[in-house]
Amino acid sequence: MFKEFRDFILKGNMLDLAIGVIIAGAFGKVVSAFTDILLAAIGNMGGQPDFSQFKPSGLPVGVFLNSVISLLIVGFALFVVLRAYNKAKSLTERNAPKEEAAAPVPADVQLLTEIRDLLKNKS
Fold this sequence. Notes:
CATH topology: Non-ribosomal Peptide Synthetase Peptidyl Carrier Protein, Chain A
Structural class: mainly alpha
Number of helices: 4
Strand content: under 5%
Order of helices and strands: HHHH
């Protein structure tokens, strides 16, 4: 059972997933800090230092606004990262050496090869 678990954990997909989760956690902290800075700047322009304190008619709308703005920032950041990744990937694929297709074997050569193989098998 331990061997099966070890094999499962050491699969490439699991390692990729673990690395992705760790990077996502770090990326989330960066985006969260940037969101705080951006929201403070927007709040100061509008006279409200923090949207989380914005409660018209007693409703906590500010927390929702903070969440929506954070979602938009994260979505845009992921869009930019994936766009750069796809562009780099296409450049890499474009510069990769291309394998040339093998020239088709003429019919007479193919026939002679088959005859040779049949005579070889008879011997």
